[in-house]
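Cross-check.
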Amino acid sequence: MTVTTTALAPRDPWSLVPSLGNLDAYIRAVQAIPMLEADEEQALARRLRDQQDVQAAGRLVLSHLRLVVSISRQYMGYGLPQGDLIQEGNVGLMKAVKRFDPDQGVRLVSYAMHWIKAEIHEYILKNWRMVKVATTKAQRKLFFNLRSLKHQFKGEADDAHVGRAALSEAEIHRVATELNVRPEDVIEMETRMAGGDVALEAPADDDHEGPAAPLNYLSDDLQEPSRVIESHHRDWLSSHGISQALEGLDARSRRIVEERWLKVNDNGSGGATLHDLAAEYGVSAERIRQIEVAALKKMRKVLEAV
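Predicted model, tokenized:
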């Protein structure tokens, strides 16, 4: 049974789809949404192209969400959550809908497959453990086809087993020939894909007595660039910066700040008290406090502008 274009028009089509937080419910919901007939798809696509009808775009996207779910299953072997794959695929679907031309004579399902896969490919390359290893077009093709070719060579097996099984020299040359890459590229990609993950942090148990985790020796906080810059800036402020800020004060304000904050008594305690300075200048302690606050505020502005 088909649903007419006007049946869902009064409501937001996305309200029919639950959040990706509940993946099973989401998949059931999108599988229940009927596909559009060819004439309905053409009419909606023309409304989007000619009138920028957002409601029509929503209907086109909504009816093809099941396609994204189906394509996402092809990339489950990379250890990434299916919900994330679907989310990225949905972005590709929306890009396809935006660029779809109903006068090209093809259905949206055929046109959208390229955009969905392209978006998922980008996500995998950015987030898999081999971050950004596939940079050229040939390397990307090798990355996304090596696993399936290994399945063909080794027979039907689980992904973990296929990932560990090394290719023979004949198989390496066969892959290189089929994908038009160098045998060395196949060997390099095979090595990287077969490599295991290393935890940066040690296990959270108290009985762990193994070797130090990489996180303990890979970085030195003291030599981290932002820390070094911050330290140098702080040293400059404590010397030249404060001197520059003091130069902008009148004589009385400068002496009050110096006596209160920059001098230490012989017994190791802080500088002069408000009452000491009040007696010296013949004013109240509250007046000294007001001068001090105003002077510090003026100095802070100077230091912030440095």
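The mean pLDDT is 75. The chain has three domains: 13-127, 137-194, 222-304. Passed to J.P. for a second look.
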